[in-house]
Design goal:
The protein has 302 residues and is of the alpha+beta class. It is built from ten helices and six strands. A six-stranded mixed beta sheet has the order 1-2-6-5-4-3, sandwiched between helices. α6 runs antiparallel to α7 (161-190). The chain is rod-shaped and about 125 Å long. The N and C termini lie far apart (76 Å).
């Protein structure tokens, strides 16, 4: 569906056209009417296309990917977590192409419909870029809360397999966000506003992307440190188990030695005929085990 967001003149001439989930014939008609390069139009039909910037003749073409607020908590791919918006900026026309409705496009459209002064389409394009970048703030804040919950679980020794499955999912989603922000930063850096008035706005967009990228990096570092701490705690737990097993095995060494001696099949073993041979054997084993216990206590191993 193609609708006119803004128009000017008498008779009204569209200056901002919004194509929502357009068909191939509709895009081809736009390409003919506005002299758009076929390759750029073909990029609009590719759902997995990453953010990019390209200039053809007097038309500036950009693709950005906004975070999809309706994505499921289990989604972890670029296509599931983000939605593409393609923009064509030419001589007094702006065309936005997307497969799914974006709230920020509607809000920007309403803002400029009510504007009394002339609309500068390059400024509109920059505002769309800034709004698409801003969609990553909420998922990053949500990831920060998850990281804090994981940290509390680890410190309280309540982390289980479900927690670590969630950690790896959060890490994957953060990597997707960081990757998209990096590609959008490259695209924005290549886009040079023709008006010097708009250059500070482009710089603000770049700085905002840098800020969100740094935020994502810090959360990824926290997750990696969290996994390292958990692995260290797991290794420490294994060491404690082995220490306890070793202590018990040492206690049973004298008993095992006696069992080995008196399990031999020699014909003449004088102790077997002694009247107090049995209690003496028990006494030696008990004394040996008790001596080992106090020796361990003295060394601080227990």
């Amino acid at each position: 569906m193609i609708q006119t967001i803004l128009s000017e003149g008498d008779p009204p001439k569209p200056i901002w056209l919004d194509a929502s989930a357009p068909t191939r014939p509709e895009l081809e008609a736009l390409a003919r009417d506005y002299h758009l390069h076929p390759t750029l139009v073909a990029d609009c039909l590719q759902p997995m296309h990453l953010p990019k910037h390209q200039r053809s003749s007097n038309v500036t073409f950009m693709i950005v990917r906004a975070f999809d607020g309706a994505a499921r908590a289990t989604d972890d791919s670029v296509q599931a977590l983000t939605r593409k918006v393609a923009l064509f900026l030419g001589d007094r026309f702006l065309i936005t192409v997307h497969g799914k409705e974006h709230a920020f496009l509607g809000e920007i459209g309403e803002k400029y419909r009510e504007a009394l002064s002339p609309v500068y389409l390059q400024l509109v394009m920059l505002e769309i870029l800034a709004a698409a970048v801003e969609t990553y703030q909420a998922p990053l804040e949500e990831a920060e809360q998850q990281v804090h919950a994981f940290q509390r679980a680890v410190l309280k020794d309540r982390a289980d397999a479900a927690h670590f499955a969630a950690v790896f999912l959060a890490q994957t989603r953060l990597l997707v966000c960081k990757r998209m922000l990096w590609h959008m930063l490259n695209a924005v850096q290549q886009f040079v506003p023709q008006s010097s008035v708009n250059q500070p706005i482009q710089q603000d967009v770049r700085e905002r992307i840098d800020s969100l990228t740094f935020f994502a990096d810090s959360l990824l570092d926290d997750l990696r440190n969290l996994l390292t701490v958990q692995l260290a705690l797991a290794a420490h737990g294994t060491t404690e188990v082995m220490r306890v097993l070793t202590v018990f095995s040492v206690f049973f060494l004298p008993i095992t030695a006696f069992a080995g001696v008196y399990g031999m099949n020699f014909a003449h073993m004088p102790e077997l005929s002694w009247h107090f041979g049995y209690p003496i054997a028990w006494g030696v084993m008990i004394v040996s085990t008790t001596a080992i216990y106090f020796w361990f206590r003295r060394k601080g191993w227990m």
